[in-house]
Specification:
This protein is of the alpha/beta class. It has ten helices and eight strands.
Length: 219
């Protein structure tokens, strides 16, 4: 962060929530919202264009999976930090957030002041997780990770495979998944085959049921 204040990009597909939060944050003397978008793909595109200090991103949005957008933002913009703000806190979400090195994960049930303080902490180089998230992670020399007590079957899947599973659970066909991920249908189909093998689940219907239980389909 520089003397210009904390530059924030908001990504949330609930228009009223997003715009209300933007107005509130812009009233803070040290925070300015440099953009608002309603999906993860636009979050990635806008982040690359305006290079915010922090991207505040909802997890459950249509289109590109938020964790994949966060991963790409982290690769392209080393100084930009990710804070997830979601109505849902699932072990699988926590695990994926930590994999993409998110510096924050808060519930939308948190008071507004908690979010503002979190943004200031993250801008200062620290991390901030809600108490519910903190209770499920451990910090070691290797970094923060989900406690073994909370490990799910999703832990066997790569970030890319989790992305594909999320699309399957949303009802996308192989061709539609390939288009969203910018890969060939064959590649998307190969991901699906590996997911089925790892989870020992052999139909898209059962994959969808599994994804629902793991909290991959909330919107």
């Amino acid at each position: 962060m520089t003397t210009r204040g904390i530059r924030v990009l908001l990504a949330d597909d609930h228009d009223l929530f997003r715009e209300s939060l933007s107005e509130k944050l812009n009233r803070e003397p040290d925070i300015s919202v440099v953009g608002t978008v309603n999906n993860a793909e636009d979050a990635l595109r806008t982040a690359v264009a305006c290079k915010p200090d922090i991207v505040v991103m909802d997890i459950d949005m249509p289109g590109m999976v938020s964790f994949e957008a966060a991963r790409q933002i982290g690769e392209r913009l080393r100084e930009t930090r990710i804070v997830f703000l979601s109505a849902f806190i699932h072990d699988n979400y926590i695990e994926q957030a930590l994999k993409v090195r998110a510096r924050g994960y808060l519930s939308k049930r948190e008071p507004y002041e908690t979010l503002v303080n979190a943004l200031r902490e993250v801008a200062a180089g620290n991390a901030h997780y809600s108490e519910e998230v903190q209770s499920r992670i451990v910090v070691s020399a290797e970094g923060a990770h989900l406690s073994p007590d909370y490990k799910s079957r999703c832990a066997t899947l790569t970030t890319r495979e989790l992305e594909v599973l999320g699309y399957i659970a949303r009802g996308l066909s192989t061709k539609e998944i390939a288009k969203v991920m910018h890969v060939s249908p064959r590649t998307a189909d190969n991901h699906t085959t590996r997911i089925m093998a790892k989870l020992d689940i052999h139909s898209r219907v059962e994959l969808t049921r599994f994804a629902i239980r793991e909290g991959l389909t909330e919107a």
